[in-house]
Amino acid sequence: KGQEAAATASLARIQQRYKSLVTGLILASKKSDATKPFRLQTIAILNTYIANRAAPADKVPLRTELGRIYALNKQYAEAVKTFMSLKKESTGAKAQEFLIAAIDSQRFLAEWPVAAPWSGIPKKNATARTTLAEMYEERFAATSNWEDLAHHGLLLINVNSSVKAFQVWTKNLEKNPQGPHAQLAAGMMMAAYQSTRNWQKLEDVSRLVIKAKLSPIFGKRTLDAVALLGDALFEGGREHFAAKRFGFASEKLAEFVK
Predict the structure, then answer these.
(1) Backbone angles phi, psi at 218, to 5 degrees
(2) 227 Cβ neighbours under 8 A, 6+ residues apart
C-alpha cells in the first residue's frame, strides 16, 4: 500500500507539472511577440494534452484557448472548426460566445469587414462568404439585431443570392423598421427594384417604409418613398394594361391619380 500511495502521489505531481507546462505555454503563445513555430508547438502539445491527460472539467476551457491560439496564429480554418464544435456542444450565451469567436475567424477566410459594407465590396471567396452568411443568419436568430441581418443580407448579395437577401430584409422591416441598417436595407431594395422594373416589389417596400415613417437611404441619398410608390403604381399599372389585365391596371392607376 505504501508503494501504491507513493506511485499515486508521484503520478499526481507529474500531472500537475504537465498541467503547469500547458498553462505556461498557453500564456506565452497568446503574447504578441510569440512566433508561429512556438504557437505550432503549443498547439501540438495542447491537442495531445486535451486528448489524453486533461480532466473532463478542463477540456472546454482548454479547447477555447486552443481556438484562440489558432486564430492568433492565423490558422483561421482550424479556429472556426474548434469554435463551431464548442458551439454545437453548448447552449445559450455560451454557445453565442463560441459563434462570435467563429465569425471573427471566418471573416478572415471570407475577407469580409467588421462593419457591414453598404458601399459594396468586390465579389470573391464565395464559399467562405456563404458560410459566413449562414453564421450571421444563426447569430441573427439569437439577437434579432439589424447589424447581424445586414451582414447576412450583404453576404448573400455578394454571392449572387439577392432574392433571398431581400426576402429576409423585407420580413424584418415588417417587424422592426428602425435604425440605420433598416434605412440602408430599404434603400438598397427600392433602388434595385426600380432599376429592374420590379414594380410590385417596389410598391410593397415603399408602402412598408411609408407606414413605418422610415427614410430609405441608398448610397449617400435619402430616397423619396412617396415618389417611388407613385412610380411603382404608374409603371405597374401600365404593365398590367399592356398585358390586358385591365382590373389590376385600373386599380393601380386609380390610386396613382388620387
Answers:
(1) -130, 120
(2) none
**pTM metric for this prediction:** 0.88
- Element counts in the chain: helices (H) and strands (E): 12, 2
What pLDDT sits at residue 233? 84
**Residue 218, SS3?**
strand
| Eight-state DSSP code of residue 196 | T
Give, as one character, the DSSP assignment of residue 74. Answer: T
CA dihedral 132, 137, 142, 148 (to 10 degrees): 70
Size of the chain, expressed as the number of residues it contains: 258
| DSSP conformational letter for 222 | E
Give 116-184 as a DSSP string: --TT------HHHHHHHHHHHHHHHHHH--HHHHHHHHHHHHHTT-HHHHHHHHHHHHHH---SHHHHH
Residues of the chain predicted below pLDDT 70: 1-14, 237, 239-250, 252-258
- The Cα-based distances of 101 to 61, 81, 187 in angstroms read 14, 11, 31
Q: What is the pLDDT of residue 17?
A: 83
Number of Cα atoms under 13 Å in the Cβ half of residue 162:
11
Distances (CA, A) of 64 to 57, 80, 94, 98, 150: 13, 11, 11, 8, 28
Residue 191 has, within 13 A of its CA and on its CB side, a CA count of: 14
Q: Is 216 exposed, middle or buried (0-12, 13-18, 19+ CB in 10 A)?
A: buried
